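In the design runs reported in the main text, the only information available to the sequence generator was the tokenized backbone. The following block is the verbatim input for one such run; it is reproduced so that readers can re-run the procedure and compare outputs position by position.
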């Protein structure tokens, strides 16, 4: 039977209180299924997307364990693919661990020597929880002062994304430094065979949980425009001009496109923030923070922020380019219409992205409406993805 309240999990009362303070009275499905075995010390593999409450599903048992067995040294290690996600997870540890007096640290690259020294100091003097991106943690580990012998829990968050980013070997390397006796909680938005392979290598008789349904929430209105690349900036300008939108998130494939779109939107007197790899980590974090607190209307970003980042109440998501991975489409549009709100997601499809978009439509088992371009914007290429093209060639041959 699934548990209905946090108290029923046997969690420390301080943690239950912290959840209540945050307004979370009822566990989400992933929390109901993941917290009890995690508290028992079992290994776990959970297929759950961002937005399901998965972060608290591992943060709570980790904190619970530390409260009940305090001691010296680093007791839990969370590995996450991006700096942004690491910071966000660390913030959940901070929020939920506040009353419990548990301290955590986010360890990631892209900061200056002061950042490095702070991380080094915290890693050597011992924080309870380290939330790290793989590359930076390995840099510290290689210098020999990080002791992971007291680790009781390792969490791998967004494991599929980490493998996509080429972190497989790094993760195995890190795991070699971790004490033999620990539990591992592995979270992944998707379960491709390579994740199963990794699970076999590092998990011990894991409890399996599957929460993710690769379908966008029903309350997201999805639409697409067939448009040539050269007309995209103008189309975006038309779509946003004069609209009373407080929170728009636009994803583009390249930093060049991000800069171009940001410039176009600024010329419309919209307030715009940009995130791409030419900006340093501090600037990216600050931009994200300002956007979250509604200090500007539009955030234009490369896909570094598409996964895992929790921003609530976005009015409109725009895919300036079709995402390469259909799962990313679902993740991106999952940024809108969270917590029972409704939202709109618009995708711009050029001729060469049509096949990719059809893969998305297959995944979400829905044909997305292709809206006519507004007046003044030339019609785009007709929608003829490969399968349809093959079909029409075939019927022509038969005729
Ligand atoms: P996540 O999937 O971890 O990114 O969480 C998505 C959002 O759900 C975050 O804003 C969490 O703070 C929120 N959340 C987590 N647990 C609960 C809960 N039990 N009830 C309501 N919201 C929650």
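Verbatim output:
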């Amino acid at each position: 039977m699934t548990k209905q309240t946090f108290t029923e999990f046997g969690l420390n009362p301080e943690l239950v209180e912290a959840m209540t303070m945050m307004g979370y009275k009822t566990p989400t499905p992933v929390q109901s299924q993941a917290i009890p075995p995690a508290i028992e010390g079992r290994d776990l593999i959970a297929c759950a997307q961002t937005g399901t409450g998965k972060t608290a599903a591992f943060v709570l048992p980790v904190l619970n364990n530390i409260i009940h067995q305090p001691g010296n040294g680093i007791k839990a290690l969370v590995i996450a693919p991006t700096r942004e996600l690491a910071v966000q997870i660390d913030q959940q540890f901070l929020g939920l661990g506040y009353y419990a007096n548990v301290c955590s640290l986010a360890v990631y690259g892209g900061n200056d020597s002061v950042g490095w020294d702070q991380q080094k100091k915290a890693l050597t003097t011992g924080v309870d929880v380290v939330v790290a991106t793989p590359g930076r943690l390995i840099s510290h580990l290689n210098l020999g002062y990080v002791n992971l012998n007291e680790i009781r829990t390792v969490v791998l968050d967004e494991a599929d994304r980490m493998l996509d980013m080429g972190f497989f070997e790094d993760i195995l390397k890190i795991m070699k430094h971790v004490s033999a006796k620990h539990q591992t909680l592995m979270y992944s938005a998707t379960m491709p065979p390579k994740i199963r392979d990794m699970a076999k290598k590092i998990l011990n008789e894991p409890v399996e949980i599957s929460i993710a349904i690769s379908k966008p929430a029903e309350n997201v209105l999805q639409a697409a425009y067939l448009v040539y690349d050269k007309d995209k900036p103008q189309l975006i300008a038309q779509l946003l001009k004069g609209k009373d939108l407080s929170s728009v998130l636009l994803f583009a494939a390249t930093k060049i496109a991000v800069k171009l779109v940001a410039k176009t939107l600024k010329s419309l007197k919209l307030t715009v923030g940009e995130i791409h790899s030419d900006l340093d980590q501090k600037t990216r974090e600050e931009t994200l923070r300002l956007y979250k607190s509604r200090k500007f209307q539009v955030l234009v970003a490369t896909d570094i922020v598409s996964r895992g980042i929790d921003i609530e109440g976005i009015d409109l998501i725009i895919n300036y380019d079709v995402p390469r991975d259909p799962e990313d489409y679902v993740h991106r549009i999952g940024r809108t219409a969270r917590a029972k709100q409704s939202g709109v997601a618009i995708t711009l499809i050029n001729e060469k992205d049509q096949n990719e978009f059809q893969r998305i439509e297959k995944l979400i088992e829905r044909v997305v409406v292709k809206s006519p371009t507004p007046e003044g914007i030339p019609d785009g290429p007709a929608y003829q993805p490969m399968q349809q093209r093959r079909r029409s060639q075939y019927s022509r041959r038969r005729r």
